[in-house]
Amino acid sequence: xxxxxxxxxxxxxxxxxxxxxxxxxxxxxxxxxxxxxxxxxxxxxxxxxxxxxxxxxxxxxxxxxxxxxxxxxxxxxxxxxxxxxxxxxxxxxxxxxxxxxxxxxxxxxxxxxxxxxxxxxxxxxxxxxxxxxxxxxxxxxxxxxxxxxxxxxxxxxxxxxxxxxxxxxxxxxxxxxxxxxxxxxxxxxxxxxxxxxxxxxxxxxxxxxxxxxxxxxxxxxxxxxx
Length: 226
Known about the structure:
The chain is of the alpha+beta class. The protein has helices at about 5-15, 20-45, 55-75, 80-90, 100-115, 120-140, 160-170, 200-205; strands at about 150-155, 175-185, 185-195, 210-220.
């Protein structure tokens, strides 16, 4: 018997028939269930300002438990683990991730399943608490005010009225940018990106200008520039 045969035999004997202790399996699954429930409520709290998908939250909790079961199965036999890798490689996920935060929760749920499957319950709890503290702390950090879109419709536009319009906008928003300008049938339609604190005062002042047909101020969820 050569060295290769000896190595192959010892390797297979070490992994092929590793017995799983039923109490250890139950503890791993129970720990994964508790932390999965914690992730479910953490996702609800952290996404209170954005689009909340209950089905996605449920899938996060289930994913942690399923990953724990997979890791426990892999530990039982090297043959099963190789077959499972081949089976999982054909899985394709078609659902697009709409929010970057959802990707963080996906990795969080999978990592909890892996850690609980390995039996490192304290690490799973500590890492989950650390992730929660980091997410809540970063969410409280103030950012610059998001820009708004000012839509104005002027009848019979002329240079003097446009100068008066920009002068009024400058009083409430020192930094502004014209996004679009369209003249149709003697009417000027303009979209201006502004950053204002006194939103109602700006709209009220512009609506009182001569030749002003309509004024609208819209918020959008685009990227914030500094």
